[in-house]
Amino acid sequence: MKTTKKSPAHDRVFSFRYYWHGLPEILYYQIPAKIILFMMFSFAEGILGSIMNLTGIYSVSSGELPSLLRSWYGWAVLITITILFTIYMAFDIIILILLSRNILYNQKKKMKEIISTAIRISRKFINFRGCLIGMYFAVIIPLNTAMIGLRLTKHAVPQFIYSVIRSNHLYMLAYAVLVLVLDFIGIIHVFTFHGVLFDNYSLATSMHESRSLFFKNWKKIVWAYLKFFAMFVLILGVGVISIVVIPYYVSHLIMQARFWYHYLIIMVVIMGLIFIFLFTMIFIQAQAMCLTRVYDECTFAGYQEAQFKTPVLFQKSFRFVVSISLLASLIFGYGGAMIFDDLFPKEYTTEVIAHRGGGDLSTENTVESIRAAIEAGATASEIDVQRTADGHYVIFHDNTLKRLCNDPRTIQELTLEEIKKLRITAPDGHRVRIATLEEILNTAKDEIKLYIELKGKSAGMQMANDVYQMLLERNMVNQVRIISLNANLITQVEKTYPDVETEYLCYIAYGQIESMEVDAIGLEEELATTKRIDDLHDAGKKVDVWTANSFGSIIRFMVSNVDGIITDSVQLAMSIKDGKSDSPDFTRLLRIFFPQI
């Protein structure tokens, strides 16, 4: 990567027309590439499924991870996932870079040649450094999107973990520093793929050369990207105002004519979604074009003036895209307007389950928290049960008493009498006793459903047996669901006591989790995709999501087909659920696609 020559005059490659007029080519190349990536992903799933089937395992979830990682097949699955993801990632990025030069310099390479080159170069990443790069991409995107409250990939930082980080300023500072350091590492290695692809460097050499190139030309690189980014922010703003905002306000002029009002707002949303899809396709490719152009200018590796032409194909394809978009809007808008209230119902049926008794309404896992959940109108209350040293059962979440009682000991180390002497400090400063399971059951009877989580080191069949007997004594078997993070335990409870509802909680899931012998599955919110929810429902399972606390998360699952939301934000969830019928029609429609609104 030598930079001995003086850079030629910068052409207008950062004009939006280079990207917009390249849209037909972007779509032409990207769609087959995505099909190949989908086939690769399906192939990878087949390999992983075969490895699991050889061992007699049909699903892997968070509860089985420790034992899985102590086995040879567990490591085989982990290594296979890492290698396949690395190949997947490398192929996708290389396609973007090759297509960038093809569009920038009008190289007219055929699709077969581009894909063949991408497959050949991708093999260079099947080594230790390549796997590190793959792991980097797998980690850095979820870490960044969690900070800004977005979800851009199927994998994300679990919200129950991020909520703990966000609640502590020191944790949040450490998290932000970690993300910034990882981002900086990615930025200085941004030209690694270019070096491997265009200069035939080894991966190690290309990483070194990328660092050198960045530090020598960082001002030019940063300035070029800032201009590019500002241009696309402007385009996004103009597009949203033109396609969504203005038509939305125009629609208010005909609000009294409900059919035509619904027709117009559905058309607005469809056109907006098409615009966002095309914008995203261009933006992703345009970033690769911007970086490729900067790389060429800084290294003079194949540098040439951008061969810009306004092809006839663009003019035809532009008219075609606009025509198809309008036709789709007209057809779906008319159909949607006919059955608007059926498609976008005014009522939410999702149940609200108060986390740890009453969520943030009261001191967690106490009698008063159950009463608060009842008063708020929650459908159910989730509690955590642990066994004391003398065989009694109390309601407590943590492994130790340190956080709530400033005592380093565990529930299992203390007798019930010793625990009764301890106090939890409520948010308003008053002191509250740790509740027994009997007290909670007596408070909840005929008032609210209970989700009882078998918790801690004492969780086992003895605990399940004792809890079941307490339910029988109070005639509460039909008012309780027993839940657990331990897959083996909860399936054993289901087999032993089929008359009580059971639910398995998980924050990692792979394979046929719907085959588990339980009545319900509790998914950490990042796992709760539409497909997974539908698969579980098709298998006869109920689906709850935990722990959805933010406005966006609660709305997202209210408009989905999950059965229940376990939340700390009970009042917020109830206000959203009760206030749905008062929401404007446009808001009801928009929340299907953008829950945060």
What can you see in these coordinates?
One of its GO terms (molecular function) is phosphoric diester hydrolase activity. This is Glycerophosphodiester phosphodiesterase family protein. It comes from Solobacterium moorei F0204. Keywords: Membrane, Transmembrane, Transmembrane helix. The protein is an alpha/beta fold and 597 residues long. The chain folds into three domains: 114 residues, no CATH class; 117 residues, no CATH class; 244 residues, Phosphatidylinositol (PI) phosphodiesterase (TIM Barrel), CATH 3.20.20. The chain has 23 helices and 13 strands. An eight-stranded parallel β-barrel has the order 2-3-7-8-9-11-12-13, surrounded by seven helices. Strand 7, helix 18 and strand 8 form a beta-alpha-beta unit. Helix 21 crosses helix 22. The protein is globular and about 80 Å long. The N terminus is likely disordered.
List the SSEs and their pairings.
Layout lengths: L15 H5 L2 H32 L4 E3 L3 H4 L3 H33 L6 H12 L5 H21 L10 H9 L1 H20 L3 H7 L4 H49 L6 H42 L12 H27 L1 H4 L7 E4 L12 H10 L3 E8 L5 E3 L6 H4 L10 H5 L2 E3 L5 E3 L3 H8 L4 E6 L6 H13 L6 E5 L2 H10 L4 E6 L2 E3 L8 E5 L5 H9 L3 E5 L4 H8 L5 E4 L2 H10 L5 H9 L4
Protein name: Glycerophosphodiester phosphodiesterase family protein
GO molecular function: phosphoric diester hydrolase activity
Keywords: Membrane, Transmembrane, Transmembrane helix
